[in-house]
UniProtKB/TrEMBL annotation:
Keyword match Transferase: no
Enzyme class name: isomerase
One term of GO molecular function: UDP-glucuronate 4-epimerase activity
Coiled coil: none
Highest taxon listed in the record's lineage: Archaea
Enzyme Commission number: 5.1.3.6
NAD-dependent epimerase/dehydratase domain span: 6-249
Keywords assigned: Isomerase, NAD
Species name: Methanocaldococcus lauensis
Protein name per the record: UDP-glucuronate 4-epimerase
Amino acid sequence: MKYSDILVTGSAGFIGFHLCKYLLENFEDIKVVGVDNLNNYYNPILKKKRNEILKSYNNYEFIKLDFSNWDELLESLKDKEIDLIVHLGAQAGVRYSLKNPWVYVKSNDLGTLNIFEFARRFDINKVVYASSSSVYGGNKKIPFSEDDRVDKPISLYAATKRANELMAHTYHHLYGIKMIGLRFFTVYGEYGRPDMAFWKFTKNILLGKPIDVYNYGKMMRDFTYISDVVDGIMSAIKKDFEYEIFNLGNDNPVKLEYAISLIEKYSGKKAIKNYLPMQPGDVEKTWADLTKSRKLLDYNPKVSIEDGLKRFVYWFKENFDWVKDI
């Protein structure tokens, strides 16, 4: 590893936590500076638990800040000797963007602009940043390829993530900063997000409560296990690209009903299903074309939906005393 001081935004978030933990466990000579505003989009207890785990490592420094506030960002980080930024912090969630659009532009667009501008002003020559499969919008061509047009987003969340990609291209073109964008496809796993389907399904099935199944169960998703995503991020960190965008998915979309059946199997309980129509901003099917990622990133997802959901449900059951309240 040629980097010594890595800034990870969204370090108390799901993907940020797992990336930081991997770096801290495998590279003792690297200092990880994690920033997060610990907001209450979902129960902050979960973010605090993740953060406490990271703070147990000697080579981790946590700074609570809102990176959409330029003055706060500058004051908190100006004296740090950062040589790589992994920008994972963002306001997540498609459906929430219908209710509170302003926070998405503030966090995802203004916040990302601040991170890119910080990299420019402090001569940090590489940024790996999070994008999303949502940028593919309502594209009918399956699987989704990085070469596909992505100019018709169907949610504000998707629009903000596409804007991030365009800003990254601008900062690369103008200032020569190496920019690597990663389009994540429905990431799941231990310490995941409680606003996502697998957490909500597992929690309610174990509690004997109904689960909401959208599009009458006809959804298909390219669910991607967290360790595979971390592998992809690490490859983007280690490899030397000037400007690229990569899909990080599983290349194996599965029906939502099948995923629910696996949760039932591993939890030992049957789901009470409440079938509902498609929700605004949702897409019926996602599928990552990994041709480019396999060739250039050496990315090869290893965890099947069966194995990944087994790990997640077993973790959920082992930690049920506190996860049930989140």
